[in-house]
Amino acid sequence: MAKKKNNGKVGLRPNMMWLWTVIFIAILGFALFGQSPKKPVTTDWSEVDTLITRGLVSKIEIVNRDKALVYLTEQGVAQLSADEQSKFAALPAEGHQLEFQIGSVETFREDFDKAVALSPTNVALTYDNHRSGWMDSLLNWLPWVFFIVIWIFIMRGFSRGGTGGAGGGIMNVGKARAQEFDQDDPNRKVTFKDVAGLEEAKVEIMEIVDFLRNAGKYRELGAKIPKGALLVGPPGTGKTLLAKAVAGEANVPFLSISGSDFVEMFVGVGASRVRDLFEQAKQKAPCIVFIDEIDAIGRARGRNAGFSGNDERENTLNQLLTEMDGFQTNAGVIVLAATNRADILDKALMRAGRFDRQIEVGLPEIHERKQIFDVHLRKLKLDPDLDREFLARQTPGFSGADIANVCNEAALIAARHNKKFVSKEDFLAAIDRIIGGLEKKNKVISPAEKRTIAFHEAGHATVSWKLKNANPLIKVTIIPRGKALGAAWYLPEERQITTKEQWMDEIAATLAGRVSEQIFFGHLSTGALNDLERVTKQVYAMVAYYGMSEKVGTISYYDSTGQSDMAFTKPYSERTAQQIDDEVKAIIAQAYAMAERTINENREGLTALAELLLEREVVFTEDVERILGPREPKQESAPEADTVPTAEV
Fold first, then answer.
1. Cβ atoms within 10 Å of 426's Cβ, excluding its own
2. Has residue 643 got a pLDDT over 60?
């Protein structure tokens, strides 16, 4: 039986498989137990010859020229059944009592004639070539019935749960797998109230919802609704959630599908599914179609993997372009799409008339992070004194998905420590856990390695504290986390632009760990790998992208579109490449010298900070200020700062 829910109750509904099983068991049971318990006895011609000679046989019937059925007289049945120890003790009273196989009808007839000549009674001999019971017919047809039933179940399985299609089968492989949003389901309904932040994006996308609700006031002015809107932003910023809110707010059908659902191993399936999707949408118009991760099929043509001249993804994209704005009219069908890789989308897909609007869904600012925390903290049992604005300040650069993860991780940490509510310390531990990884206090580190790590992290802390444009330290630890042997948390500004002076100070602070090792121990270690990697990328961006080099010049070789025609070659000469390499080395050497000078000027304070780290393993701002003195204020006022780790060993 299969379970089925009706009005919240779980019941049982009949299944055809059960019906076939019951029929089969009934037939088998009747075949085995429905007949008389007394069956004819199988014998041979020698015994039958003896019975004929004794006058105990009344008739013999030859069936299909290979089987003989022997009918005994009443006297014969009585005599043979009298001996309870013989095999003839339980002979049937009706029908034939004995049966045996014959080899040849002619040979049997000769033997029969000889036996009848010696019999005191007359024995009849008949032939029947058409005698067949219903069980024989059933057995003849049963293999065919079996194969037919198996074929039916296989075909039903293909059409129900195979390799694709709207119904999920190979017979429906060309059908779109779009799911229609159920507006009557309160557990799945999401509205704009559930989407914190993203105010600008909600204003733009709300116009589409308002048009669907009140189309008359727009049409009176001659306005036309945008045919499509593309949601662009980093992963986890709420693009799909925003689309769900549109589905919850709009009183029109909402079809949702993923870009990867169009991709199939069969040729032409993607284009067929695009046609079917828009056919469904036109039948439900006015309707909203949401394509998540559209870059799966919207990648710029000619740049797909495999370099095939007849690529299936390109065929799917061509069909999508035609459906969105081609000869056919899709009046009332609005297409929403989401991607975090808008730079690789095809230009024809991005033009007006297809996606008229490109809505940026970026990382949240501090006040938006506070709103996101308010949403995700609703279901948590919190400390009454918890400052939600403090949590927002501690999570710069976090997306909405990251904040949701922080809240869940904090609740797990509180439960792990048997607390009755989630407190500030749990959230700070959750942030450290997500950013730096799990603490590995039991990791085996020799005293010499631990001392090197302490001076490395103290170097970061000292230089970042003394250089006014660098990010001041909030916390530093030498407890291993994840792949890092130590980590430092800083207080960066939430700024939109960065000057060269600010970058130079930050680079010097990043290199300070390597400089500290060289000054105090006279050797270099592999602990600065992450620092060197970040510095190298940062300085190359300064020279090649932001034009912050006098020798190379105010030139940018950055391609923001991601569709450069020189994808496999450098957009500059070998001479310029050499100049870029030389300038990068010069800038890093300059920052290295800044860090070295700062450490030499504060050698005693760095040593005291390193010794404190060896003693306590974790050092906070108060300790740094007590050892190194108050930090020099910046010349210009900066926005309220937040913490994020930016240095690790």
1. 26
2. no
CA separation for the pair 548, 470 (Å, rounded): 18
The total of other beta-carbon atoms located within 10 Å of residue 19's CB is 10
Angle subtended at Cα 110 by Cα 105 and Cα 114, rounded to the nearest 5 degrees: 140
- Distance, in Å, from the CA atom of 618 to the CA atom of 439, rounded to the nearest integer, reads 12
**Which conformational region is residue 420 in: left (phi greater than 0), alpha (psi within -120 to 50 degrees), or beta?**
alpha
Give me the helix-helix angle, 105-117 and 45-53, nearest 10°: 30
Question: Position 270: which residue type?
Answer: G
Least confident of 221-225, 265-269, 288-292, 463-467: 265-269
Half-sphere exposure of 625 (CA within 13 A, CB side): 9
pLDDT (tens digit per residue) in 607-616: 988 888 888 8
Distance in angstroms (rounded) separating the CA atoms of residues 126 and 542 = 110
179-180/333-339 β-pairing: unpaired
Q: How far apart are CA 376 and CA 355, in angstroms?
A: 32
d(CA 413, CA 401): 18
Q: Is the pLDDT of residue 511 over 70?
A: yes
Q: How far is CA 191 from the centre of its chain?
A: 24
Residue whose token pair is 């700024």: 495
**Do strands 287-292 and 487-490 pair parallel, antiparallel, or not at all (unpaired)?**
unpaired
CA-wise closest residue to 615 among 442, 389, 451: 451
- Encode pLDDT of 137-173 as tens digits: 666 677 777 777 777 766 665 555 444 444 445 545 5
pLDDT at 266 (0 to 100): 66
537: three-class secondary structure by DSSP: helix
The verdict on whether omega for the bond into residue 633 sits within 30 degrees of 0, i.e. cis, is no
Q: What is the mean pLDDT of the chain?
A: 78
Residue 150 has a pLDDT of 75
pLDDT of 336? 87
Sequence-separated (6 or more) residues with CB below 8 Å from residue 289: 178, 255, 257, 277, 278, 281, 333, 334, 335, 336
Res 636 pLDDT > 90: no
Whether the CB-CB separation of 98 and 40 falls below 8 Å is answered with: yes
Count of CB atoms situated within 10 Å of the CB of 456 = 30
pLDDT of residue 536: 93
The length of the chain is 649
Q: Active-site residue numbers?
A: 457
Cα separation, 498 vs 508, in Å, equals 15
The Cα 545–Cα 540 span in angstroms is 8
pLDDT computed for residue 590 by the predictor: 93
Residues 6+ apart with CB under 8 A from 551: 579, 582, 583
Contacts of 81 (CB under 8 A, 6+ apart): 88, 89, 90, 91
Q: Which residues contact 78 (CB under 8 A, 6 or more apart)?
A: none
Whether the predicted pLDDT of 309 surpasses 60: no
pTM above 0.70, yes or no: no
* pLDDT for 561: 63
